[in-house]
Amino acid sequence: VSHPSSALNSTYTRWMEQAVGRRFGSEPKATCGDCAMCKPPATGLGRAFLPSVKCCTYWPDVPNFAVGRALLAGGEGASRLREQIGRRIGLSPFGLQSSPRYHRRYESSPGKFGADLEMRCPYYDSGDCTIWENRNAVCQTFFCLMEDGIPGAEVWKQLTLLLALVEEKLSVDCANRHLHHQGFYQAAFQSNGTRNRVTTRTFGGWIEDDGTISAELHAELWGDWAGRELSFFEACAADVEGLSWSEVLMRVGPEAEALSRRLRLMSPIAPPRHLRPARPGLALEYEEGNESVAYTPVQGALDVHVASIDLWSALLAFEGGPLTEEGLKLPDRMLPAEDAIRLWKNGLLVEGGPVVARAVEPEDRLRVVPRLPIQERVLFSETGAATVEISAGSTELSFDEPELLRFGRTLYARRQGFVAAEAKEWSGRSWEQAAELLDGLLALGLLERL
Ligand code: SF4
Ligand code: SF4
To answer: Which protein residue has the closest C-alpha to ligand 2 atom 5?
Structure first.
C-alpha cells in the first residue's frame, strides 16, 4: 500500500477543502510501503501484522460511483472488479459489498486484524492496493499510528463518519437516477426506506454465503440494466464527477452538513488549558519494566508508548493544573509544554481541572471506566466456596464474602452504567455501606461518574 502526501483521493480532498477548509495529510508514522506494524513490537505490548496482508484484513464495500471510476481507471483493480461483477459476488446497483461469510468471520474475529489471510481484501495484491484512488472512506481514513494520538484519532473518526455517510447516500442517489422499475424498489429497500445489503442478506432474494446473488434477485434488481452493469457503474461515476461540495450536500442531505460542521470545529486540534492525569496505571494497559512503563493510549490501540518510572510516579501524585507557556507544574518538576501536550495526545493526561472528591449520592450515575480492559472470573475453593474476581487494568478485586458475590457479578454485568442506589440491593447491605464500597471503587479509579 503506497503512501501519498494527501490521505484522501483527489475528489474527497477537493470536497473536504470546500467543506472543512483544510486538506487532510496522511500520517507519516504509518509507513505503509515499509509497513510499521509488520515489525516485531519494541515492547511487550502488541503483535506484528503479517506482511502478506498488513492491515488489509478487510473486505470493503465499494460504492457504485467508485466502482465506475475504478473500472474507467483500468489496470489490475478494474480486472478484479470486472471478475467480481461477472460472478455477481456482492453485486447490487449500490456497488460491491462483502459476502455474508466474510461478514460473520469479521464480526467473530476481533483479534485477527492484520493476521488472518482468509480475511485478506480481494483488492490487495502483493502489498499494494489495486483500487487505491477509489478505495472506500474507511480505507482512506485508516492509519495504524497517528501523529496526534487520541485527539488525532477523533478527527479521523469524524472524517470516516462523514465520508462513509456521503458514500452511502450518494450510492443510493446514483442508483435512483438510473433505475425506476418496481423490482428495484421492492428488492433494494426496506419499508422504512433504508437500503438493503448483500453482507447481511437483507435483500428479498437468495444470496449465497460467498456473496453470489441469485439470477432471480439479480434480474429483479437490475431490470433493463442486467448484463450492462459495467456501463451502469460508469454512468454512476459520471453522475458524481465534478460535483462541488454544495451539490453533494443537496444530494445527501443535512446530516452531512452537521458532521462537516463538527469536523470544522475539531480541526486544527487545540491543546486544552487544563490537564489532569488519566489515572495512569489504571486507565491504561501497561507492563512494568525496570526503568520504564510501556502503555497504549486506549485498550486495543496499535501504538505503544514508553514513560519513565519517574514520570509515571509524578503523574500518579499529580492532581491536575493549568497548562501555561512554561509547561505543566507536576509535584516534582515543571513538565515542558510540548511534553505535556504529547502526554495528552498519548492519553496519559486528559482535559480538565483537578478532580474534586465527593461522596457518592444515591442518584449518581456510575460506570466502570470504559478504557479499562475488564475481565470477570468465578473461582471455587475445595470446599465449594465461590470467589468473584474482577481484573480491570492493573487493579484486581476479589469478592469472597458470600453476600458480596452478587455485588461483584452485577457490577461486572452492569459495567456500562448504573444508578448508585441500585448497588444497595446488589450488596445486600445498607445504603451507607454500599456507598462506602462505591466510594472506594471511585477512589481506585475503577468507577467513574457519567
Ligand atoms: S496503515 Fe496499514 S499498511 Fe500502513 S503502516 Fe499501518 S498497518 Fe502498515
Ligand atoms: S481496498 Fe485497498 S486499502 Fe482497502 S483493504 Fe483493500 S487493499 Fe487494503
So the answer is: 56
